[in-house]
Write the structure tokens for this entry.
Amino acid sequence: MRDMKALIIYHTNTGHTRQAAQDVAEGLKGEGLDVSIQAANDAAGWDVADQSVIIVGSPCHAGSVSIRAGVSGPVLSLLKKLEPNTLTDKIAGAFSVNCAYGGQKTVDAIEKHLQAAGARILQQGVVIRAGVPFSLFRGPMASEKTREQLREFGYILACAAKGDDRTAQ
Ligand SMILES: Cc1cc2nc3c(=O)[nH]c(=O)nc-3n(C[C@H](O)[C@H](O)[C@H](O)COP(=O)(O)O)c2cc1C
């Protein structure tokens, strides 16, 4: 049987969200999924035909400003290109990195876009803490505990894609 595929789209300024994407990927790969990680800036559109799982991660950018709901520019532009039914029946999820607060808003907004395109959100998205305000420099790294949460998130979505829903909410 061909490996199931997963795509992780992310944006980063100072590297934390890329690291988070790699941690989620580890969880997916542990269950045998073939994972691609793509920067939102490099993605022209949504080439998802053979993907079983789609995960989108964004640093929290201005979580208190409602106009962008905390989603970074490149991720939001890409989400806005999602046509209805592009993700029908695919399993999807979201994660965000914030230095203080607002990341839950980012996750909620990403999930809304994914669901509007038909995706199934089976597992609540993950918010982790790293970095500094306005990403002025790289700042503190994510803790090992939160990195484990990201690996677990990948693992759960991989299990769900394989039809083992026991671990999904
Ligand atoms: C324009 C901008 C707005 C930000 N707004 C928030 C915010 O509302 N809340 C927060 O906790 N962090 C905020 N941050 C900080 C980043 O979310 C944080 O540093 C994160 O770790 C950056 O991830 P990255 O290394 O992947 O770019 C903001 C950063 C930028 C550049």
Residues 1 and 101 are 43 Å apart (CA to CA).
